[in-house]
Structure formats: structure tokens, C-alpha cells
Amino acid sequence: MLKNFWYAIAFAHEVEHRPSKVTCLGQDFVIWRRRNGTVACLSDLCVHRGGALSMGTLVEDRVTCPYHGWEYEADGSCVRIPANPPGRGIPKKARVDSYPVVEKYGMVWAFLGDLPEERRPPIPHVAEHGDPSFRPVYWQTVLEANYERAMENVVDAAHTPFVHGSFLGDPDKPEIPDYEVTQDEWHAEADIRLHPPVSKGLWGMLAPKRLDHVVVTNGWYLPNVVKLHVRLPFGDLILYDHNIPLSQNRTLVKLVGYRNFFPGRWADGNALKRIRRIFEQDRKVVEAQRPELLPYDLAAELHLRSDALQIAYRRRRQELAEQGWFLDDGDVVVGDVPRREATVIPSPARRDNPELARAWVHKTRGDDHEPARSAE
Ligand code: FES
Ligand SMILES: [Fe+2]
């Protein structure tokens, strides 16, 4: 799992003026919408005794810990300790990590890392969002699999005739012509020719004849977004999957599907039904993959020309791992076992306040250059 990226953590329409818990990279966060409309995101770990802030309430725009009532501002600083008599100051270390938040493309994105603004990788550009010719639908599900396995599945064209033969891909024509990968630092995509079967039902009415081929565009955007653009005979269907790592082996997939045909609300249910059907076909194979985690070593699995997009992803993640952007198992809270340490991802404020860099959480990760170890 990678830190120092913008992660989509919620659909924008889900976030209200009350604390709610979200999980990403195996860590819990509390988010809420402030009265000015912006969203705040803090580590869900009260610095006093580790209470879960997401179980608290809001006082104006501040979140209150449910245990002893400490109040935190959106920047993570504690501004009220009810047990203190009037006049007693608040220690500088009484604060929690606060993460930058941006709302874009119908999602709330939190920057989980400590890089200053100018060094942060970009949020993937979604050209269809806000374009009146496209209509979005939103759907989410929990996948009992690692998020990188889920990502690779979406960019993998060769599985379509076998897993989705009824929708896309023809098992009698499973060859994947060689394709060209277009890549930059944070993203890669490719146009790939597939042979589709005849559409059925509502969509079949628009395209009764079998086409020789369709071109799909498959792509990944670091750290966890994948795009599937299917050019159907009657229009475009473009899916963005945000693969949110709840832990190493559980993924919350938040999916936005844009279409520029049947633009009315009445067709949303049908579009969602098809998206779910495709996803459920993938679920079976992805949840059964072993090893559960994506191998680090490129030589650990056999690759073909048709796996070029996945190879590009694995190479790039390797580079980032070498750069120190990886969170490994030891750093991330996973599963339901009792914890000796609770970890948080360093936020920009730690970098800005070196004297506090290791101060305000029970156990913390180190910075870019030091592996995880912490002080009090
Ligand atoms: S644990 Fe949060 S105020 Fe005590
Ligand atoms: Fe699939």
C-alpha cells in the first residue's frame, strides 16, 4: 500500500455535518462536512486515550471525543479539554493528524501522506464528470481481496472472454492483439480490441447486430483507481473503480459509471444492474486468487504481451517502494486482533512542526527516510 497519494475515501453525497468513520490503508479516519461546505479529515485516534473520534459528536465545526470530550478543530488541534479547570492551557502536543481534503468528480479525496502541496501527485482527471452528455451512477461493494488484485483485474483484457463472455469478449476469439501502452508517472492506459457478443435486453434494442470488434480503453491511475472505457455501438460506458484498501485483504470498491446513451434517470437501474453483473463475475475469480497479495518480484508470475498494462503497474509500484512510499504490514493496523500499537500516517503538519513530528500519537510511522519506529 502506498502513502503520499490522494485517496478517494467517500462519495461526496455521503458526507454530512456529522462525524463518520472511513477506512483506508488499514487506518481509520473521521470525516465530516463543515458548515462552510468543506470536508475535514482527521486520524480517528484521540491522542488522550485512543478514543474513536468518529463515535463523537460535532460542536459547531469541531469534533468531540466520545470518551472525555476533548474537542478538535479540522486542523487537528485540540481546543478544549473539559476536565481542565478554567485557565489551564492546552498542551501543544494535544492534537491529531489532519489530512488535506479536496472534493472533486463526485468524490471526497484525502491526501494520506506528509508531502507539501507542490510535491503531491495529481488526482486522476475525469473528463466525463460535469459533462452534460454523460450521466453518472454510483455503486459500492466490499471485495474480500487485495486492492491491487482488484485493480489488475480491471485493466486485464485477456480475462474478458472467459469471465464476461456474455457481455464483452467472445470465447471463440480470445486473442488480444498487441497493444501500445501510453504511460506517464502516475497513469497508464491502452486501447485494446475485443470481440463482443450481441447485446441483450434494453441495450440489445439499440444494437441488434453483432459487431466484429469494439475498442476498449483500460487504464490505471496511481494509487488505486482503474478506468474501463467500453465503446458500445450506441454509446460509451466509462467505469472508474476506486479500490480503497480497508486492509491488505479487504477492498471497498467505490464505482462511478458514466454513460452517454439512455441519459434519463429511468435507465440508471438498468445500467447499475449490468455493472453489478460484470462485477460479480469478477468477484468470484479475484477473491479466489492466490497468493492474495500481488507479488513484489516481477519474476514471481508468468507474464504475456497481453499483460503489458499490469507489468507497467508493477514496475511503477516497485519504483515507489524503493522511494520509501510503501506502507508495509508492520505499519498498518490490520484485522481484529488486539493491538500493541496504533499507527497513523504522518500528515503534513508533522513535517511543518519538526518538534512535534513524533509527538502526538501513541505509536507512529517515521518519515520518508526512516522505517516505522516511533517515540512517545
Ligand atoms: S480518549 Fe478522547 S478525550 Fe479521552
Ligand atoms: Fe472483469
TrEMBL record:
Residue ranges constituting the Rieske domain according to the UniProt record: 6-110
Keyword Oxidoreductase: yes
UniProt cross-references to Pfam families, sorted A to Z: Rieske, VanA_C
Molecular function as annotated in GO: dioxygenase activity
Signal peptide: none
Lineage: Bacteria, Bacillati, Actinomycetota, Actinomycetes, Streptosporangiales
Species name: Nonomuraea corallina
Superkingdom of this protein's organism: Bacteria
Coiled-coil segments on the chain, per record: none
Name by which UniProt lists this protein: Aromatic ring-hydroxylating dioxygenase subunit alpha
Keywords recorded for this protein, A-Z: 2Fe-2S, Dioxygenase, Iron, Iron-sulfur, Metal-binding, Oxidoreductase
